[in-house]
Amino acid sequence: MNAVVIDSSSGVTLARDHIRDFYDSYYSTLDDVELESWPQFFTAECLYRITARENFERGFALGAIQAESRGMLIDRVTGLMRTQMYAPRYYRRFPGPLRIVEESGGGARVRHNLLIVETLVDEAPTIALCGTCHDLVVIDENILRFKERVVVYDSEMISNSLIYPA
Amino acid sequence: MNAVVIDSSSGVTLARDHIRDFYDSYYSTLDDVELESWPQFFTAECLYRITARENFERGFALGAIQAESRGMLIDRVTGLMRTQMYAPRYYRRFPGPLRIVEESGGGARVRHNLLIVETLVDEAPTIALCGTCHDLVVIDENILRFKERVVVYDSEMISNSLIYPA
Amino acid sequence: MNAVVIDSSSGVTLARDHIRDFYDSYYSTLDDVELESWPQFFTAECLYRITARENFERGFALGAIQAESRGMLIDRVTGLMRTQMYAPRYYRRFPGPLRIVEESGGGARVRHNLLIVETLVDEAPTIALCGTCHDLVVIDENILRFKERVVVYDSEMISNSLIYPA
Fold first, then answer.
1. What are the chain B neighbours of C110 within 8 Å (beta carbons)?
2. Interface confidence (ipTM) of the complex
3. What does the DSSP assignment read for B88-141?
4. Smaller CB count within 10 Å for chain B: N or C?
5. A28–C111 C-beta distance less than 8 A
6. Pairing of strands C143-153, A107-120
7. Which residue has the higher pLDDT, B95 or B1?
8. Do C90 and B156 touch (CB under 8 A)?
């Protein structure tokens, strides 16, 4: 994890470049399957949710995957590392342009599209997930972290094998 | 529509950031299917064309879809909203890096690649369009608008269902 | 080829914008199949390699495609232009965000994801390559060039027809 360190004494709002660096670090950590670093991108209390577009638009809180603390994310990763480390498949994330839709003291709501491409070792790559992210990025212990990350995918079903974090 | 407002008194050429914001707003308006806002991204007289690469390279003016005024775009949207509002499919746009290939007083020619991913509710996402955009972005009534937007797709056929704007 | 000219007298490290412009020029040259310009993006002595992830992670030097000088790249292009000019297929490149992972005097190590979409004239577009690029970009004769370009794709096989440069 390459933490994006913020000099909080300056009191400025988050710069575009810092947010861009934060996402670059986040997605490359996931692409490289550095699962043990993943929970550190979230605040101790947080919302992490992956849900279908239909549920999201109807305001349903239920999601395919949900966690409400860094501890729950650590549990999830521990399970994954035990069972899936040698799975012969790769995921690579292609985020669209980042849009800062709202900024307030120390936090920014960021939206962007996300394409996750899945490659099984002997097959051609396919699209595992196409959707949009509704995130809240904050300064926490002098680095940037997600306070909220909600990934809304367009289909009702996602790839059964998409068990790695998005 | 989040119009990108330009202070025309400054007389400067268009900044990269303004153009980026303009496209972010354009593509998210389409992704969110806010069709009634779409024509406002174009000048009253404009060129909107979606055409196959083969036609484009041979200089054929004929395109699969063409409009020459905002009024024609409004007509198109009105028809779409009447017939297609509940279609159970989604399109999401992934633009490549924006390249400003020419700048003159108040206008910029912008090229970039475009990938449109289509998701039917019960199926895995697929690529509906892969191509490149040849646009002319101008300042019009103090905001940015397309004076020209020509989307050139690589195949001879595009998804039959790609009836929404690109 | 739109060379990115650097004023080397300034002695500054490479700016993000210069590197972005360099990649924009590189990928659009390839998308437009301007093969004769392609070798000029590399230093006279260079490393160009396209290899499978498994080989890369095990440290195998062998790659599916490899060249160690601009001369070898010119040879490759000459062969391609003789045999493949009228092939009815197109490739379009979608790079992910550029990450500068290391900078030193006059050079930058740049990593980014890469998606190459292939379109055969009568078929829907598919993903020909999904992978990541490990590049070394340097100032050479006052312009930016690749000293190293290593493209690591996720599957063991790439599209048989991916004979054009990446």
1. none
2. 0.88
3. SEEEEEEE---EEEEEETTEEEEEEEEEEEEEETTS--EEEEEEEEEEEEEEET
4. N
5. yes
6. unpaired
7. B95
8. no
